[in-house]
Amino acid sequence: MKLLIIGASGPTGRHVLEKALQEGDTVTVFCRHPESLKDVKGDFFKIAGDATSQEDLVKAMTSQEAVISTLGRGKSTQANNLFSQSAKAIVQAAKIAKISRLVWLSSFGVGETFQDATMIQKFMYRTLLKDIYANKKASEKTIRESHLKWTIVYPTALMNGSPKGKYRVHDRIKMKGAPRIDRADVAEFMYKAVQNDEWSFRNAVITN
Q1: In what order do the strands lie in the sheet with 149-155?
Q2: CA distance to 128, 129, 133, 146, 178, per residue, from 68 (Å)
Q3: I want to staple 79 with a disulfide (CB 3.0 to 4.6 A). Which of 24, 60, 84, 135 is the partner?
Q4: pTM as predicted
């Protein structure tokens, strides 16, 4: 598969990149600083650009078959409209480049998944993460209303441990306790999801 990974320099994106390379795909990464991926073993194409720029994205999407987006704001609690603006740019660029498949990384607690959160989670989402979650919700509206065959992935608290290879993924999961998931496992699922249409037009809540 000719696969474009947007945000590949982030911690989850790197895992997606490594998985795609292991599987032998033709991979292109798109991020602001692709030079930060020089330690990743394997051959892949690197394109520097702005995920909110339709022009940059069209160049990156040309000749691709599918897109995985792992955009994030790191430790920041402010979205600065990254998700809403990039979603609009990605949708328009994909239409121009004639791409139909997108797997998009969100966060558990955004949109309809909020109703299945624990009380502690809901408090966090309404306070500390309020701005980012509102912007992610707006971005998802754009994606759902687009021409794309989308999958929106909602991981619980992301951890940096080794992949477990065992996780739960469903359209809805009622949470208990302190749910979490390793980024490597999320990346594995995102990679699998983009390969076919089993998860097209579906939410994918993923946790341990």
Answers
A1: 45-48, 26-31, 2-6, 66-69, 101-105, 149-155, 202-207, 168-170
A2: 27, 23, 20, 16, 27
A3: 135
A4: 0.96
